[in-house]
């Protein structure tokens, strides 16, 4: 059997892309998931705050996932669980997906289109190279989250958290609620990498100190972690001698960043963007390989699942268009990040595929107050987005109407942070 | 009295200012939706939070079932609530929205399941 669209990953991006592709006329859609259930990381994110944009109500992660899983089931979209994708090959009109699972062994699945929704994984202690021993009791925040919220294991009692990403902040509260004592959240940068609301409701509510410009310089303990040495850093992120402080603890949680999981993408030869660590994508999330689309955290790390779902709708639409032969492949615009902006997604726009508007997602490099993000084509200012505060932790969501873009034949759209006029 | 606060109703996190007027009413600025002022006034008079946590579940694929308070509860009673919720043991099957604790601490608020778990 030849599928119309095969989705690699049954998390929030994969579920929403599958639903959209099916609703847009793709008949044979299949979701491949390596875990034992659909829903991805949402299953362990038991806290509330999801779905305010998508469903207009506040849901927990499992509730948000369940809404999409129900849609997948209602549409009769098949899915394979406990199934690992090993490889993706481009055979011209068809793609071959090499997969393995316990039930069927090794299989090659053929499909017209593919949507890559593998998500991301956490950076580990190895990736940040903290000196010291390698005792037990050092976890990534997401691992601890899975142990506590799904498997029912408490990971420790006296806790230090390194990194103020959202998972770290959420886990500070979660550990506290379950009776642990969180001594501090240390953040290397002079600002938090989490949403402000999470600092308020996860740290301030429980009097957990957030130590900015602070890092861990040594992990103590041989079998189990016994403590950490923390120290202040200067503007160049170098440790300031004499500021070291020892904190005894039995647990260290790391919330030090997420990496899009793109081994399959890279092996397949899809062109990547080294700013996002994801594929270079167009307005409907088409990649450099015809018929291969990508969306969600595998393209760039999002801070809200609602925007993942929004992006997945584009990829689902794109895949459905592609199999009908309706996807335009001529690139009208490319995008680039100017001063103050770290990256922009999508990196390309084909105007014929655009319906009403294009939403450009981007992250600023540092904290800015009372500035604007301006979009230029050449010297021409085409759109402005005002924000009271621009934070690296909060993705900027910049919508430009089709009518505005249509005034220009082609070119490069450059996004820059500038003074408000 | 004037107070600056970050709205936590949704992830936008509006920076709001709330001011108590002489007549005891409040004026809220900086919000982008109508949920903001409601949160700000609550925060001044009776701060509340939804508590998401887990309970023990038996005969399910996993040993823990995620739950939440169906409504926000007073901030001061969070740990009392956790003590009650941590005693709960339920049996699969459970459906999202099933009540696992009725009338938590006499607050008139239930604790409900936030996912479906089949018996297995």
What does the secondary structure layout of this molecule look like, with pairings?
The complex is a heterodimer of chains A (about 425) and B (about 120).
Chain A lengths: L1 E7 L3 H12 L5 E4 L15 E3 L8 E2 H14 L4 E2 L2 E9 L2 E8 L3 E12 L3 E3 L2 H4 L9 E3 H11 L6 E5 L3 H12 L3 E6 L9 H8 L6 E2 L2 E7 L6 E6 L12 E4 L2 E4 L3 E3 L2 H6 L3 E2 L4 E2 L12 E3 L10 H19 L9 E5 L3 E5 L2 E2 L7 E8 L3 E10 L2 E11 L5 E6 H4 L5 E9 L2
Parallel strand pairs in A: 1-2, 1-8, 2-5, 8-21, 10-17, 11-12, 11-17, 12-13, 22-29
Antiparallel strand pairs in A: 3-4, 6-7, 7-8, 9-18, 14-15, 15-16, 19-20, 22-24, 23-25, 25-28, 26-27, 26-29
Helix pairs in contact in A: 1-2, 1-8, 4-5, 5-6
Chain B lengths: L1 E5 L8 E6 L5 E4 L5 H11 L2 E2 L2 E7 L5 E6 L3 E2 L3 H8 L3 E3 L7 E3 L9 E3 L7
Parallel strand pairs in B: 5-8
Antiparallel strand pairs in B: 1-2, 2-3, 4-7, 5-6, 6-10, 9-10
Q: Can you tell me about this structure?
A:
The complex is a heterodimer of chains A (421) and B (120). Chain A is of the alpha/beta class and 421 residues long. Chain A has nine helices and 29 strands. Chain A folds into three domains: 191 residues, FAD/NAD(P)-binding domain; 133 residues, FAD/NAD(P)-binding domain (3-Layer(bba) Sandwich); 92 residues, Immunoglobulin-like, CATH 2.60.40. Helix content of chain A is 21%, strand content 36%. In chain A, strands 1, 2, 5, 6, 7, 8 and 21 form a seven-stranded mixed β-sheet that branches. The model of chain A has no long low-confidence stretch (mean pLDDT 95). Chain B has 120 residues and is an alpha+beta fold. Chain B folds into two domains: 44 residues, no CATH class; 62 residues, CPE0013-like fold. In chain B, 16% of the residues lie in helices and 34% in strands. Chain B contains two helices and ten strands, in the order βββαββββαβββ. In chain B, the strands form three sheets. A five-stranded mixed β-sheet of chain B has the order 8-5-6-10-9, with no helix packed on it. In chain B, strand 2 and strand 3 form a beta hairpin. At the A-B interface, strand 4, helix 2, helix 4 and helix 6 of A face strand 5, strand 6 and helix 2 of B.
